[in-house]
Every structure is written in structure tokens, then in C-alpha cells.
Amino acid sequence: MKSYPPPKEFVATARIKHSALEKLRKEGIRSPVEFWERQAEHLLWKKRWTKAFVRKHPHVQWFVGGTLNAAENCLDRHVTTWRKTKAALIWEGEPGEIRTLTYGQLHSEVCRCANVLTELGVKKGDVVAIYMGMVPEAVIAMLACARIGATHNVVFGGFSADALRERVIDSGAVCVITQDAAYRRGDTVLLKSAVDEALSKVKSVKNVIVYKRTTLSTPMKKGRDVWWHDVMCTASIVHKAPALPSEHPLFILYTSGSTGKPKGILHTTGGYLVQTTWTAQNVFDLRDDDIYFCTADIGWVTGHSYIVYGPLSNGATIVMYEGAPNWPKADRFWDMIERHRVTIFYTAPTAIRAFMKWGDQWPKAHDLTSLRLLGTVGEPINPEVWKWYHDVIGKERCPIVDTWWQTETGAIMIAPIPGATTTVPGTATQPLPGILADVVHKDGTSCKANEAGLLVIKHPWPSIARTVYGNDERYRQAYWSEFPPDKRSGRDGWYFTGDGARRDADGNIWIIGRVDDVVNVSGHRLGTAEVESALVAHPAIAEAAVVARPHEIKGQALVAFVTLKSSAKNVQLEDLREALRKRVADNIGHIAKPDEIRFAEALPKTRSGKIMRRLLRELVTAGTISGDTTTLEDLSVIESLKGNDEE
Ligand code: WTA
After folding, report:
1. Over the Cα atoms of the chain, what is R_g?
2. What structural domains and CATH numbers belong to the chain?
3. Would you say residue 438 has pLDDT above 70?
């Protein structure tokens, strides 16, 4: 397959060139802890750590004894330099308005918001839920929480009221920051009313702060709700950032796992900031004159690490966009890149597949020569799509960094260093320095070249998730039970990613996909079990099994197989289909609605009664079953499922 060495012009000014990368890799392998300690030197610490790494399986701590403040690292240390007047954030609303906040202005707003939160009684260690669209106030709210040591819990604005309630209750949030409504594809998404619905029976939340984005009228609950503009305008812009321990909880972010209940992934301060800062700087080769545009939503980990903490800690200029990529037309991103002279563009393969489908005429109508680096995240990128991105968007000049990482890893783990790595379409290439990744068999032995196996990380890294909030056991089970510490071989526990992969003869890692029941729809991570729970909660449904099939744009699409209760045999199937889709949207959000719902007489089960999702997966992918059916209880079930194609 064709490979792409870094372009000469790029290498000329690159932060890390080939020989430097080799040296860093060696250092990282010799001692990952010392490697990361050296990177930690670049942050502003109030007190230096005494021990860089402490491990008590399955828990780890980094930079123990050190204190710092994440917001101070992202703001105050720039405000004391020429960057005070540099643009930190260029924001564009969907209807077209543009706001620019300098580091000085962003700092003032964050200080104000920190004072507001304190005034409302939010204290260090409290959890604050943030349920907002893509507005600068979401960034301000996150950094204000970080500043006072409150732990933010950002809930994606596309999640439903039920999903929000579950996340507020599980995290014990005391305050919710939201907005009246958000603009999306020319329409409004009502966020505050979803908050009202979510909080109807929640006791922990004392206050809701509401940012007014639209002209819609919004009911406010007396004694609980306050307007953002009312409280912010009287708050002081002076706020002293307290010193927080390196292991102080910075945020909780819920993500899908293989059971029905989402996991509250907990990240802490020092290690997370060290690794997001280093990776943002070096994977994106960030320089002061860059205009960096990451299209992720703030509600996902990419928004946390590569809109907020990583870039701002580096003093970069970020572009943030509120709305849909095809509003008002399919060239919105290209138009923005041209107008803002964007130099670095970071997006998801699912988005690139959509751009391809919309047609080359849209990017071709714009001057994209400001771009110098492209990035992707969230799912494997097919080589043809990579090539299109490279040729049509990057005009064959821009390196592409395909970045592999997870909510749990906090920061990029496997990716090219753009001025040093020869890239090959479809692989995120090699682990970054300080990251000891391997592809192994179930017994822990390393796979040979091109052999498929499980992707593991053999040494903990600074931004690793510290636990599943309130559930250490689930943390151990989900990430450490596959390769636990083993006294006989002397193996420390290895982190299991949940991904299958293979490593080629050049050492490049190719992600095959998840080996658990987690699927990736349009770059959004979903647990099939969550969708099944939503379906089974419907009174007409006896059983449900949800699997994914490949989809041209979304990457994967959900297919639900459901069986009806005998009491429901007379229902109208079309009405029921709609009702089931709505139920999933209400329980989780629109992103989780199955593309297809198939009604079945029975689901294929093993003799011990387990649903054989593997067979269903095969059925929806290949249209037939060729795999092993020896444990199947009743073979006729498969025949009847085949004939049940809808639409
Ligand atoms: C997948 C997103 C291939 C992978 C930051 C992982 C990828 C899951 C890539 C995490 C990539 C992410 N190539 N697959 N470059 N990046 N993935 O937690 O399956 O939303 O386990 O984090 O996305 O998804 P999450």
C-alpha cells in the first residue's frame, strides 16, 4: 500500500523530526515514568511532585505530592505574556455571528464564572453538570469548574432528558449549567426544558444556571434557576486559582460500555493535563500562529481534550462552531476554513465520508490553502476516505494524523508525529513515546506481524481514567480483568482497550474494531445493551438484541431484533416500530435510534439461554450464516430471521 512520508516543507519547521522522535521513543521505552516527568516540567506547578508514579493495582496516581490548577495552566500563565491579547477562542454561531475571546477576556470570564459558582455555594469536590450546545459559555463553565476544583460532568446536548437525569443522579451533581436552547440545522434544540424534565425528581441539584442563547421564552424555577447574564455581570473578574492536588478529580464523562448502564469515567488533574498538553503540542505540531479547528462536540472526550484543555494549555487559537456542517449549505466547514484561515483541521471519519458524498464541488469552491495539517479521530478511516481527505482537502500537501484513543485514555495514544512519521492510509501508525501498546493473544503472548489480537497498554500513562465514578469494581472488571497482574510471569496488570487490532511488519497498528458490545455510530460510542434496555422497557417487547452492521456514512448502523410478548400479538407493527424508535430517542437520544427494527418469533440462543449476537451480526452483515451454530438451541430460528427483512 502507498505510504506518505512527511512533506519536506512541513518537516522544515516541524517541532519533532524523525531522529528526535526515535530518541523520544527510546526514552519512553526505557522509562515511561521519566519520559512523562520530563513533559510535566512544562506545566505550571504550584508545588512540584515528590513521586511521579504510584501504583496500587488497579489504581494509579501520577505526580503525587504536586499541586497545580488546570484553569491557571490554560489561562493565567498566558495572560502574563503577550498572549493576553491573542485570540484564544474564535466562535461562530450557526446563524452566522462571530465572537472572538482573547486569552485576557477568556480569563476574565472564567474568573467571573468561578466567583458565581462559589457564590452559589459550589465547593471544591462538588460535581457540576454542564448540558449545553457549542457556545463559548460551555468552555467558560468547564474552566470555571476546574478553577475552583469542582468536577465537571458535561452531558452531550444531544442526549435526552432521561439520559441527563441518569448522569446527574449517578454523579450527584449539585448544580447544572445549561442554556435556553441551541441552534442546530436551522432549528432550535430546547435544552432548558430537558433539564426541567430531568430534574423533576432529583434532590441533589440546588441551582440551575441558564445561558440565554435564543429569543425563546423560558420558564425559570424560582429559588433554583438563575440567568447566566444576571449573575455573571455583577461578578468580579478577580479570582485566585487555588492549588489543587495532582490527583484532584477534574471531570467525569459518561461513556458506553458493554452493559446497559453508562460508565462515569473519572479523570484527574495533573496527569491528564500533562498528556493532553504534550499530545496537542506534538501530534498537531501546534505553533503560535496556528488557527486550530476541532469539529468535535464539547460533550465528547475529544471536545474536552482537544478543544479545551490541550490547545488552551498550549496557548493556541481555537475555532469553535455551534451548528451542523451542512448548514446553510454543505460547504460550511470549507467556508469557515477559508474565512478564518484555519491551519489545522481535526474531524471524524464519519464526517469525512459525508463530505465525500456531498461532492467535491463544495470544498473546491473554497480557498483551503491555509491548511497545513489534517487530523481524524473516533473510528478507523477507510483508505479511500483517507485518500480523498488527503487529495481534495489537503491538496496533497498536508500530513494526516489518524489519532487512536478513547474516553478512558484521556489523550491520544497511537498517532503519527506529522513531521516525523511516514503515514499509511488506514492506520494510526505507532504508539506515541511513553505509551507501551501491544497486540497480544488471549494468553498474553505478543502476536506475530499481521496476526489479529487484542490491543493492550502495558504500562499506565498519565491521563488514564482513574476509575468508574463510584464503582471501582466495574473499573477493575472492564479494563483489568482480561490481563490481571500475574505473579508467575511477573506481569503487572495490563490495560485492555476493548479493541481488536493487528500490527504489520513495519510496526503500524491497524484497529479492527471493538471486541465487546460497544458500537460506533457516526463516531458516537454506544453500548448495544443500552439500546436493548430501552427497547425491552416497552410493554409490548419480550426480548431485544441489538447488533451493528456496516454503514456507508455512519460507519456502523444499529439493527434491532425484537420479539413480542404474547399479549401484544395484535399490535400494528408499523406503529410499534415508530414507538420503539421514539422510546430509544427519549431514553438515550436520537443518535441511538436503530436504522432497522426486525420483529422475530424467537432469537437465536445457546443451550444455556444466551442470545447469540454473533449470529445476528453475521446475518445483518453477510445476509446469511456460515459460522459455527453448534451451540444454537433451535436452528429453525435462523431461517425465520432471514426472511424477516423490513423496508
Ligand atoms: C475507536 C474517542 C480506529 C476505538 C476518542 C476506540 C478508533 C473507541 C480511532 C473509543 C482511530 C477511536 N482508529 N478506531 N483513530 N479512534 N477509535 O471513547 O474503537 O468515544 O476504542 O473515544 O473509538 O471511542 P471514544
Report:
1. 24
2. 522-647 (3.30.300.30)
3. yes
